[in-house]
Amino acid sequence: MLGAAGGVGSLAVQIARSRGARVIGTVSPRDHGYLRTLGAEPVTYGHGAAGHVRELAPDGVDAVLDTVGGALLAATAHAAAPGARVASLADIGAPGVTPVFCRMDRADLTALAGLAETGELHVRIGATYPLERAADAQRALAAGGTPGKIVITVG
Ligand SMILES: NC(=O)c1ccc[n+]([C@@H]2O[C@H](COP(=O)([O-])OP(=O)(O)OC[C@H]3O[C@@H](n4cnc5c(N)ncnc54)[C@H](OP(=O)(O)O)[C@@H]3O)[C@@H](O)[C@H]2O)c1
C-alpha cells in the first residue's frame, strides 16, 4: 500500500486487514507507529523503499494499491511478484497500472458501517475546528501536513 497512512490509504489498509491480508505500507517515519496500530508493517517511503519491501516479502508482494503516484509507483516493479496486480487512484494513466475510481454503493457503505461497528475501521482525525473557524480549517487543508481528516463541528 503506497501512502498507507493517508486518508484513502489508512481505510484501504484496514479493509485489507479485515479480509485477512498481510499489508506492508509506505509511510513517513512519523507514521510508523500509527500504521502498526492498524496491523500493517511500515516502510519509509523514498530512496530504497522497494528494496525494504523486498526484505519483508522476499518473493514480492501480490498486489499494490497506490495513492501517491510518481516515482514511488514506478519503483513498485522491484517489489512486486511476477503477475502482481498494481492499481492506482493517484496516477490513473500510468502504463500497466489499473486505474481506480472510488465509488461506493449501498452495499459498500453497509459493509463499511459494519466494520466501524465492530471496531475494525477507524477514521483518523487530525484536527477539529468549530464552524466559525471553517476558513482556518480550509487553510490547514490547503497547506497539508495534518495527519488525518480535518473535522468541522457545529454547535
Ligand atoms: N481516483 C479516485 O477516485 C480518488 C479518490 C480519492 C482520492 N484520490 C487521490 O488519491 C490521492 C490520495 O488521497 P488522500 O485523501 O488519501 O490524501 P492524503 O490523506 O493527503 O494522503 C496522502 C498520503 O501520501 C503520503 N505521501 C506524500 N508524498 C509521498 C511520497 N512522495 N511518497 C510516498 N508517500 C507520500 C502522505 O504521507 P505524509 O503526509 O507522511 O508525507 C500521506 O499519508 C490524492 O492524489 C487524491 O487526489 C483519488
From TrEMBL:
SUPFAM superfamilies: NAD(P)-binding Rossmann-fold domains (SSF51735). It comes from the Bacteria. This is Alcohol dehydrogenase-like C-terminal domain-containing protein. Pfam families: ADH_zinc_N_2.
